[in-house]
Amino acid sequence: MSTAVRRSKTLKISLGVLLLTGLGACAVEGGGGYDGDVGVGVGVGYVGDYYEPCCDGYGGWGRGYRVGPPRGYGGGPRGPGRSAPSIPSGPRGGGHSGGGHGGGGGHH
Amino acid sequence: MIRSIYVALFIALIALPAARAAGTRAPAPIELPPLVQPASGETHPGKIIWADLVTPDLKQAEQFYGALFGWTFEPIDGDNNFAIALNAGQPVGGIVQRAMKAGQQRQPAWLTFIAVRDVAAAQRSALANGGKVLSGPREYAQRGRQAVFADPDGAVFAVLASSSGDPPDVMAEPGEWIWSSLLARNTDHETGFYRALFGYDVFDLPPEDTSDNSHHVILASDDFARAGIHSLPADTVHRHPHWLNFIRVDDAAAVAVKAIALGGKVLVEPRMDRHGGQLAVIADPSGAPIGVMEWSGTEEAQGASGDQPDLPGAQKEAP
């Protein structure tokens, strides 16, 4: 086998290894994003990066459709068959400042 | 031949780490502020404690939400594409700017963060109950550990084990988050998923109107309502399941009008809801939906006024 042929073969093998290496690296690193069905990753710097599927309009809510919290009790024990509690209603105090949703009532 | 193999292996040894490093491109961690200052020491699993807006235009978002709610904004050290929104000086959420690829049909949205004690345990529960892990647990020095999941219906949410504790259970001030609703297709399955994940008490709410055939559930913990799960309205068959968060406002109708003037849209016109106040759903200029909700007075004042002091038909579900 001539030197030129050997070099050509070496080059081909090397390129093949490089190609496989590159593909392998992409496969390893590319799987960490958001599922395309539910959202899409838009960056790797922060865990909260995502966009939602688009953009099919919001539609209307019927007359009886309600999404708000009930006005009931909140923060006290109730027995079996109890009614739904409400959101927190107490005043802010105690020196703690809320964070984000944190200060809020309801969930917050 | 043997020499060729040696050369190939040598190249592979050099190329593999370089390729993996190039693929990772891990940026410096973002320095997120603590959720609660000073640390509260409180934990309220199931409480919704934070929200992040992901948007292609940070400045536009700041202008819109600043004018609408009076929020101010602080940049995050180490990331020019991230700002913390403040209401009366207190953090209410994050705004993350990320480019949207040309032609990409995606919608900016607020990502809902729910408190957990153990993110890894939450991940196991999510997977065991039909959810997906969209972004695995990641630690942020002062903030805590968080991860992003999709529930069985595909609605995206995040969990956060706050290293400074969870915010106390107090009434939301105007400009703060007051409520969250999950609009879903399979409410029974979704309820089971969230109950398993967060240990919620679950209350079925009766329809307030015979024209409403949808299913409404309240999720509670610590004897407080934390969120609602609601059937997607019948005429929104194409809308994907999603979480919707509400900001407390004094006048939902006025906020809706202002939102339009600021370049937003009204998605659901102001309407009276079960709590005796108006709510509306608007979209910011980038299209991200957000709710606004009135809540007048304290529970005592509301009870004295006779506005739905209780809902006797709402019964707790058997575990």
The quaternary structure here is heterodimer
Helix coverage percent of chain A:
25-40%
Helix tally of chain B?
Answer: 6
Our Rg estimate of chain B from Cα atoms comes to 22 Å
Could you report the average pLDDT of chain A, rounded to the nearest whole number? 59
Question: What's the CATH topology name of chain B?
Answer: 2,3-Dihydroxybiphenyl 1,2-Dioxygenase, domain 1
CATH secondary-structure class of chain B: Alpha Beta
Secondary-structure element order of chain A, N to C: HE
Corresponding CATH architecture of chain B:
Roll
State the largest interface.
A-B, 91 and 147 residues
The portion of residues forming beta strands of chain A comes to under 5%
Structural class category of chain B? alpha+beta
* H/E topology pattern of chain B: HEHEEEEEHEEEEHEEEEHEEEHE
Report mean pLDDT of chain B, rounded to a whole number.
Answer: 85
Structural class by sheet pairing and helices of chain A:
mainly alpha
Strand element count of chain B: 18
Q: Largest beta sheet of chain B: what is the strand line-up?
A: 15-16-17-14-10-13-12-11-18
Give the distance, in angstroms, between the N- and C-terminal Cα atoms of chain B: 69 Å
Principal-axis shape of chain B equals globular
Discrete helix count of chain A: 1
Concise overview:
Chain A is mainly alpha-helical and 108 residues long.
Folded structure, characterized:
Chain A is an all-alpha fold and 108 residues long. Chain A is elongated. In chain A, 25% of the residues lie in helices and 2% in strands. Chain A has one helix at 3-29, and one strand at 52-53. Residues 22-44 and 95-108 of chain A have low confidence and may be disordered. Chain B is of the alpha+beta class. Chain B is built from 6 helices and 18 strands. Chain B has helices spanning 2-24, 58-69, 119-128, 187-198, 252-261, 299-305, and strands spanning 48-55, 72-76, 79-87, 90-97, 106-107, 109-115, 132-140, 144-150, 156-162, 177-184, 201-205, 216-221, 224-231, 242-249, 265-272, 278-283, 289-294, 315-316. In chain B, a hairpin with a 2-residue loop joins strand 3 and strand 4. Chain B is globular. At the A-B interface, helix 1 and strand 1 of A face helix 1, strand 1, strand 3, strand 4 and strand 5 of B. Strand 1 of chain A pairs antiparallel with strand 5 (106-107) of chain B.
